Amino acid sequence: MKAFVNKIPTPYFLSAKKKAGWRPTQKTIWMIDVWSVHRSKVFHEWMKANHPTIILDYVPSGCTSKAQLCDVGMQQPIKLSAKKLYHEDIVNKVLQQINNKAKMVTFDVVL
Q1: How far apart are CA 47 and CA 38, in angstroms?
Q2: 16 within domain boundaries
């Protein structure tokens, strides 16, 4: 999450402020969902220490489709496609092991 904040929203916010002629210290409201990582004490403390100009505002649970339209219209098809591909990959790996008469089906969990 820290890498994401540093690489995606923070540079975008700074660029948008510069384009608008605002100071880099201008506060920015970032509307995010109530995912447990976003609400954690560790994340809050890190945000305050490293990104004090970003104010976290949470989309109430069950309201993402109303408040974050890009999540539904643009990101959801990508997420569903990735999920389908991951599932297909796992099924193919299991079938390959079964076809090769493996005594035990195993999964490589190394990232």
Answers
A1: 10
A2: yes
